[in-house]
# Entry
Amino acid sequence: MEDLFSVKGKIAVITGAGGVLGGSIAKSLSAAGAKIVVLDIRQENLDSKVAELKAAGGEAIGFICNVLSMDSLHETAAKIVKEWGRIDILVNCAGGNVPGATLSPDQTVFDMKIEDWEKVTNLNQNGTVYPCLAFGKVMAEQKEGSIINISSMATYSALTRVPGYSVAKTGINIFTQWMAMELAQKFGEGVRVNAIAPGFFIGDQNRAVLINPDGSLTDRSQKVLAKTPMGRFGDITELNGAVQFLCSKAASFITGAILPIDGGFSSFSGV
Ligand SMILES: NC(=O)c1ccc[n+]([C@@H]2O[C@H](COP(=O)([O-])OP(=O)(O)OC[C@H]3O[C@@H](n4cnc5c(N)ncnc54)[C@H](O)[C@@H]3O)[C@@H](O)[C@H]2O)c1
# Structure
């Protein structure tokens, strides 16, 4: 019987695959039989991820690629097609908060540095839009492919301290819906575009705002847990099944969706 959820043999391109989320998704898709293209701007992140995937018996290649450069993205798309012939999956994991773009508790929005606003909105918004254009074009020509973008809990209602990140991730939501419409109407139903919206996971980028140096929870993380019906942080491996589902035949009629993976945070008023 056909496995509806199979990604076996599919060519999966993952931007920021040397990072926490991208690395975990790469590992999981690889274990499910996908061939992984690891993209990152940092050579050391790239090399260690490719080596890890190969050591676990997966097929992987890696390229240095800057998601903010259309030239770099087009060159990389051409290299991937030359090497492996096609692109089936794109997961846009490059992104995240930028030092300086998170307001400290004693700052107001009027203290925000415009350079940091520009950095965080550029990386998160354009760093997703540009790869969708470069790799999505290959998918449009094939008339087949699945794109997964990474949204955030900062898009459902206002989250203190992170104005730039919130605006950029909200931009990703409407761009996901817009590309889903555009590709289905103009290139057929085979190219789908969806997003996942991770809830709160402790990672390098947010550890300092969620965990005190002595290991106890910060005021902010206590508020997060109070608004999470499941009452806990997520484990990043809990994103993997949703990504695989959205990339598989099981999701053949799903496009333009933004799937929260958050223990109920986005659906709970807090009261
Ligand atoms: N960690 C979390 O709890 C969490 C929660 C919600 C959403 N997210 C989102 O998930 C995504 C990944 O987050 P993460 O925690 O894995 O971050 P991370 O910092 O661990 O990984 C990001 C990777 O992207 C690479 N990168 C940075 N700039 C790049 C560029 N211009 N071109 C190519 N690669 C570049 C980095 O080198 C790094 O390897 C981000 O969009 C983040 O906002 C994370």
